[in-house]
Amino acid sequence: MNKELFKNKGFGFFISARLMFTIAILMQSVIIGWQVYEITKDAFSLGMVGLVEAIPSIATALISGVIVDSSDRKKVLLFAYILMFFCSTSLLIISSDFIPALIGYKISLIYVIIFLTGISRGFYMPASQALLGQIVDKEHYPYAVSWNISIWQIGAISGPAIGGFIYGFTGTLTSYIIIISFIAAAIIFVAGIKSKSVFTSTQQPIFERLTYGIKFVFSKQIILGSMTLDLFAVLFGGAVALLPVFASDILDAGPKGLGILRAAPSIGAVIMAIYLTKHPPLKNTGKVLFSSVAGFGLSILLFAVSANFYLSVFALALSGMFDSVSVVIRQTILQIFTPDEMKGRVSAVNSIFIGSSNEIGAFESGLAAKLMGVVPSVIFGGIMTIMIVSSSIFLFPALRKMELKEKQSGI
After folding, report:
1. Are 184 and 302 within one domain?
2. Which of 171, 211, 208 is closest to 31 using CA atoms?
3. Are the beta carbons of 326 and 139 closer than 8 angstroms?
């Protein structure tokens, strides 16, 4: 299957663009964080970076889904990439102090650019998911999704590392030049993809088109159940926001240890995603999904009670492995169970679920830690994740019984 998949030049261009773009935006995320803190010396300003990007991303998601489903998806993705190219170039200009009049407004201008990157994110997530389903044959969906996620995780590991290394040794300007080069490469790869046009009726009123993606998701128990599991697992089970506390006060690992802890889930996810490119979970898929989310919760519990650095790294890597299984299954479900003319809007709803769970999950972690203490709050999150899995088994019986192999063979 993998050999046949890579005979598709469009898919090769797609994952190459995915890798280049992922590395670029995560490099930029790291550099912006350091740059903003360097200017403000205020930790709250770092929280504002995430919020300023999340608001436009979530706000534009439904609109972008409609546009993706009624336009050339390749062109929509190119628009998102070109907008990010403009943002990175603007950050280079602002950081260079080339225009003296802008120096006093540097932090405000950075926030404006971050807001625009949020708009780009609101478009490229639905466009990317919808375009993948358009350039890959349906029987290759599970393998294509596994490769897509593997590439993203590789970028998630290498992007921050490359960004930190280049920033530390060469400074801000060289870092942004390299980021711009990566985005330019991604644009060239996307431009090389031959995409098919998608017929969609535009007779519906605009409000109905905007909300139809939400209605579709809530009418399909398998799609809704998979999204709900992911939403609440990240909402309660995520411990990333508290890793600095664990590294400093519990594991006594210092900043280098924090870097290892941050990388551990992605390393585990890459290992599992690469395995799944050859062995996608086609049999007993629903049971595998529930088991993987429960395993994620148990991994978080192990991390919470661990006082040993190496055991903590192992637990986080394990959580990444389990999370990778659930992500591959969820993304495959979206590709197989969603009609092609609906994929933009359904992917947009999915991006809202993901964005909400990540941002609100970080807030929940901080609030729970303040009320309960750090370790009890993470234990609480792990237990809640397992309880959600237990209740979802009964709430979503169609998801529990789902077999992707049967659905794939019935396409």
Report:
1. no
2. 171
3. no
